[in-house]
Each structure stands twice: as structure tokens, then as C-alpha cells.
Design a protein that fits this description.
75% of the residues lie in helices and 0% in strands. The protein is an all-alpha fold. The chain has one domain: Growth Hormone, Chain: A (Up-down Bundle), CATH 1.20.1250.
Length: 475
């Protein structure tokens, strides 16, 4: 199904609605921006607290701390689809309130542990709770944003995570020094509880139910959603989530995370090892570049969509982003002999800018094809994407210590071989986007074919689970 451009009269009416409509949907985007700031404050906090926790928690060796990091990734990835389905089922108002309260409780309980085993248990449940953060928010955005505003909405929303991560790298150590690591987790938990109270009081699942939206804004949102209804609205969820569109979306999103998650795991210690301790503070710069990229990409997606290019509005920013990511990563390989950290910082910032450009079109793509099931569809993409995150955190030190490549990495001891690997994944993601089309219609499948698809989906989940457990605990 192809989307036709609106007639001039309809466009004039839409412009009038734009000028008369209230702006409550923008307040929604702001609330969700703060929501993602909070998610990454809670995630980065434990990394900053690691030295103090190891001195205070029985049995928390470096190896056990790795398991603690890993168990969060397992819980977070495995519960993406269930939490997305839950948001679609009960509505994002109730779902996100429950999700944020649950993960805030386990954030606070992190500050109460005294043994490594109890910490493992708490962080697994923290991951399970936080799994609903992004699918639930995506479902909320679907109900409140016209199709043409999904790109900028997703861009601003996701940039909060990068701002939160960058700020936390600087702020959390100072807070821990001031009030101690245990009370720092409690303080972070209280921020989440406050957000949940505000969310429950302000948000409504439908704009028509919100007293602060006027008729013009309600009509603008409704018409904007109806302009681009998914051609697969009546297709069963299992068929959608096992379609070529979603499978490609999963794979390309894993490619993005392979590059991005190095910026919040290994990049800071790598800078300190390769250069000096003061250079480690520069690790926040690529994250800030990523935040800018999300705004640029979100604006580009929205602009292209308003020009009547619903498919290219997703495809072009994503392909440009992955191309920039691959180029920046290859440039990183040429900085190994520099005595200053700045060439690497600038090249890696370009790479992060590139891969972060892909988030807005990726999540908008899930909204396009998922419709009222956006939570579960985006959860499936994010589930496999987190496999890429886990993989990168595990294989990065292996590449540094063991892998060489002609020209790019002739000897071990640098991350050049990993940068080439990540660049290759970005190139494959560019190719994947050539075949992704949110307006592609899927034919109705027979009951037998749906059963086969269901088995395929179960196999995918099991493979993701096994891969996560293996990479986190045995590699």
C-alpha cells in the first residue's frame, strides 16, 4: 500500500489545525525525555559505584561484578516482548507507571544488598523491570503523535538516554563521594518514583481523554495517525514480528548497539589505558555527539515525511547514519599512533553520531508497522538489539588482546580490529535498510503457516536467551 499525498484543501486544513492546536503532545515528549534520562542514570550508577561496592559487599570480585552487569542484560532483553505486549494490552499510562515503580524499587534495593548473590538477584529483577521502559514509551508516542512527527518525537525521547549517560559519568562519582553508594541508589530510586507519580497524574492513553488538549490538537493527532495506518493492521502479531521487515529491523538494530554500547562500557577504561587518566573524562563527548545526532535525525525523518516520502523518511537517515558510523570507525583505526586522545575522540564521536542517527528511523519504523501493537513490535527489535550490546561488551577486550588484521590492525593491543568488525556490521545494516519498507503489505497466512512462524519466533527468543547467557557468563 502506498501513501498518497494529501490534496491541497486537506493540507490547508491541517495547517489551520497546527496553528490552533494546543501543544500537550510536546509536553509528553518532554516527560519521556526525562524518563530516558532516568533509565541511564540508574544504569550508569552501578558502574560508578563499583569500587565502593566491592569494598562493602561480600564476595563481589571483578568476575562476579561482570556477572552482575550481565544478569541485568539477560533480564532486560528477555522481557522486552512481554513488557511491550503488556503496554499494548493495558495502555502505557498504567504500564509505564508500574514499570518505573518496579525498577525504582529494585534500584533502591541495590543499595541494601550485602552479598554478591543477593546483588545478582536484585539486578536481574531490575533488568526485568526496566525492560518495559522503551516499548511502553513507544506505545505512548504512537497514540499521541501524528505519523509525520514520529521521527522528531523518537529523536528527542532517545536523546535523554545519551544526556543521562554523559551526565552520570561526571555527576555520579561526586554524589557517591558525598552521600555514599547506598544512598545514591536510594536517591536515584526516588527520582523514578516522582516521575511515575507525575506520569500517572498527567498522562492519558488517548489524547481525547486529556482535559488540557483542545479539539484542534485531538483532530490533528487523529488525522495524522489515520493518514498512515499500517497496511498490516489486521495481520496477527506473530506474522508481523516474523516478517522480513521486523527481522531486518532486529538485525540492523543489533549492528547499531555493537558500536554504541562500547561508549558506555569499555571506551572510558580504554582511553585511560591507551593515554592517561585525564583523557578518560573525554569519554562523555561521543555520548553528547549522539544526543545531537538524535535531534538531527529526528528532524530529518519528520522533514522528509512532510515532503511526502514516508518510506524514504526512515530509510535515508538510517542509511546515512550507518555509513557515517562505518566511516568514523575506520578513521578510528588511523589514530592508534597518536600521542593525544583527541583524534580518537573526534573519530569515535563521528561514529557514534552516525549510529545514533539510526535510532529515530528504527523506532519510528516499528511504530509504522506495529500500529496499536507498537510496544510488542519495538520490544522484539530491542530484544535482539541488546544481543548486539552484550556481544560488543564481551568481544571488545578479546579483539584488543587477540585479533590482528592486515593494514588496519597489524598487531594486538589496540581496538582497531574491533573497529573494523563494527564498521562491517554497519555496512551490513545499510544493506538491510534497502529492503525495509514500512508500507509493504503482507498476505494473509494459513493457520499452518502461522504455527510455523510461531515456532520460528520461539526459536529466535531461545537463541537470544542462550546467546546472552553464554556471552555474559562463559565467554
Amino acid at each position: 500500500m502506498s501513501r498518497t499525498l494529501p490534496e491541497f484543501g486537506c493540507q490547508k486544513s491541517a495547517n489551520m489545525n497546527d496553528s490552533l492546536a494546543t501543544r500537550q503532545r510536546y509536553l509528553l515528549v518532554l516527560l519521556l525525555f526525562l524518563h530516558t534520562v532516568n533509565t541511564y542514570m540508574d544504569r550508569v550508577c552501578i558502574s560508578a559505584a563499583k569500587p565502593a561496592m566491592q569494598a562493602d559487599v561480600s564476595g563481589l570480585t571483578d568476575q562476579m561484578m561482570g556477572y552482575v552487569f550481565g544478569i541485568f542484560a539477560v533480564g532486560y532483553a528477555l522481557f522486552q516482548v512481554p513488557s511491550g505486549w503488556f503496554s499494548d494490552r493495558v495502555g502505557p499510562r498504567r504500564a509505564l507507571t508500574i514499570v518505573v515503580v518496579i525498577w525504582s524499587i529494585f534500584t533502591a534495593l541495590t543499595g541494601a544488598v550485602h552479598t554478591a548473590i543477593s546483588l545478582l538477584f536484585v539486578r536481574f529483577l531490575f533488568g526485568v523491570g526496566e525492560a518495559g521502559a522503551y516499548p511502553g514509551a513507544t506505545r505512548a508516542l504512537y497514540s499521541w503523535l501524528p505519523a509525520r512527527e514520529r521521527g522528531i518525537g523518537q529523536g528527542i525521547f532517545h536523546s535523554g538516554a545519551r544526556v543521562g549517560a554523559a551526565a552520570s559519568l561526571v555527576v555520579m562519582p561526586a554524589i557517591i563521594d558525598s552521600i555514599g553508594w547506598r544512598w545514591t541508589f536510594v536517591a536515584n530510586a526516588m527520582i523514578g518514583i516522582v516521575w511515575a507519580v507525575i506520569w500517572w497524574g498527567w498522562y492519558r492513553d488517548r489524547p481525547q481523554e486529556h482535559s488540557a488538549t483542545n479539539e484542534a490538537e485531538r483532530k490533528l493527532i487523529e488525522q495524522g495517525i489515520e493518514e498512515e495506518v499500517s497496511p498490516n493492521k489486521a495481520i496477527p502479531y506473530i506474522q508481523i514480528v516474523t516478517s522480513a521487515n521486523v527481522l531486518l529491523a532486529m538485525c540492523q538494530y543489533a549492528s547499531s548497539n555493537i558500536t554504541f554500547f562500547i561508549s558506555i562500557t569499555w571506551f572510558r577504561p580504554y582511553l585511560e589505558e591507551q593515554f592517561d587518566r585525564s583523557s578518560a573524562n573525554l569519554a562523555a563527548i561521543p555520548l553528547l555527539a549522539g544526543a545531537v545526532a538524535l535531534w538531527v535525525s529526528g528532524w530529518s525523518v519528520t522533514r522528509l515525511h512532510r515532503m511526502g516520502m514516508p518510506v524514504l523518511s526512515r530509510r535515508i537517515p538510517a542509511m546515512i547514519g550507518y555509513s557515517l558510523g562505518a566511516f568514523g570507525l575506520l578513521l578510528c583505526t588511523q589514530t592508534a599512533n597518536s600521542s593525544s586522545a583527541w583524534p580518537l575522540i573526534l573519530c569515535f564521536s563521528l561514529a557514534i553520531f552516525g549510529v545514533e542517527m539510526t535510532l529515530s528511523p528504527s523506532w519510528a519504523f516499528c511504530m509504522d508497522i506495529g500500529g496499536s501493537r507498537s510496544g510488542a513490535v519495538s520490544g522484539a527489535m530491542n530484544m535482539v538489539g541488546n544481543l548486539g550490546a552484550a556481544l560488543s561488551a564481551i568481544v571488545f577486550p578479546f579483539f584488543v588482546a587477540n585479533v590482528t588484521l592486515p593494514f588496519f590492525a597489524p598487531e594486538t593491543g589496540t581496538a582497531n580490529s574491533f573497529f573494523v568488525f563494527a564498521a562491517t556490521m554497519n555496512v551490513l545494516a545499510v544493506i538491510a535498510w534497502l529492503f525495509m519498507n514500512p508500507l509493504r503489505e503482507s498476505p494473509q497466512l494459513s493457520r499452518r503457516a502461522l504455527q510455523v512462524r510461531l515456532c520460528l519466533f520461539v526459536v529466535i527468543i531461545l537463541l537470544v536467551a542462550l546467546a546472552l547467557v553464554y556471552t555474559q557468563f562463559w565467554m
